[in-house]
UniProtKB/TrEMBL annotation:
Residues 6-207 form the Glutamine amidotransferase domain. The active site is at residues 82, 191, 193. GO terms for biological process: L-histidine biosynthetic process. Its EC number is 4.3.2.10, 3.5.1.2. This is Imidazole glycerol phosphate synthase subunit HisH. The gene is hisH. SUPFAM superfamilies: Class I glutamine amidotransferase-like. It comes from Methylovulum psychrotolerans. It catalyses: 5-[(5-phospho-1-deoxy-D-ribulos-1-ylimino)methylamino]-1-(5-phospho-beta-D-ribosyl)imidazole-4-carboxamide + L-glutamine = D-erythro-1-(imidazol-4-yl)glycerol 3-phosphate + 5-amino-1-(5-phospho-beta-D-ribosyl)imidazole-4-carboxamide + L-glutamate + H(+); L-glutamine + H2O = L-glutamate + NH4(+). GO terms for cellular component: cytoplasm.
Amino acid sequence: MSSVAVIDYGMGNLHSIAKALQHADPSVDVQISSTAAAILQADRVVFPGVGAMRDCMLALNGSGLAEVIRQVANTKPLLGICLGMQALLTDSAENGHTDGLGVFSGHVVRFAQELADTDGVRLKIPHMGWNQVRQQPHALWQGIAQDSRFYFVHSYYAQPDDGAIVAATCDYPNAFACALAQDNVFAVQFHPEKSQTVGLQLLKNFLHWDV
């Protein structure tokens, strides 16, 4: 039986993610774990997160899980979700400056204070709700129509140094990277576990991703 570990470091919708993974493929053994051994033994790993980058990195560094995630990123399929995606970059402007895990080279920046759509209507921060995702070719988009809508909740977004790792973009109002892919690591800014059918399809694709 294939197994997937959902990393528990005290931040994230762990049970909703685990439930969505189980629904995406009932044959997979889904485990929520905070122990290095269980995470490293799993066939695949999901790195979720909600909240502040500084708190995330304090928890990861304090528990030793930061190094575990870096090891996973070099050895097996890894899916970062929301804050889990942001933490994979070099650093974040949140709380002034917070060092990330450095799996992806790049930075996390905040949306501008004054944003407006093409009609001049002011856009709220955080970016919250459903928005279209414009895909670049990747196995994890299989069975998901171009411009499908996913659910977002965030005030910061990724700016990778290498545009070649951008696996999808979203407009708010300008285009920003909402998915990154590099080797066996795939990360999304949106919440697949809250994105209904298309989110479940992405999770299913991850569970069957043959890197």
